Amino acid sequence: VIVSDRYVARNGDRADRQLSNLAVCGADSQCYMDAPLVCYQCPKFQPLLHADHQRALIELENRQAMSSNTGQNTAAVYDRAILACRRVIHDCQKILNATTSAVNVES
Fold this sequence. Notes:
The protein is mainly α and about 110 residues long. The chain has two helices and three strands; from the N terminus they run βββαα. Helix 1 runs antiparallel to helix 2 (about 75-105).
């Protein structure tokens, strides 16, 4: 669920659930994922609408490339996170476009 700001998100009032300036974690207990980047695939991840998810995508792709170059199998771990991050970028853009269209219609 994409949220317009952290205060409407589950746990939005908890400092320990803020994932950089990207999202809010909706989980009640601590997890040990590589937050916030691999959190994109988690169902409790609540991305912020106006966050720089493109920058997160670049970081994920860089990490995947570094893993591939070192011969580690961890590069595959980033596949799902990259796909999930791309989906968030796409969904945020759709929301922003719809909002812009609605404002233009009302003007």
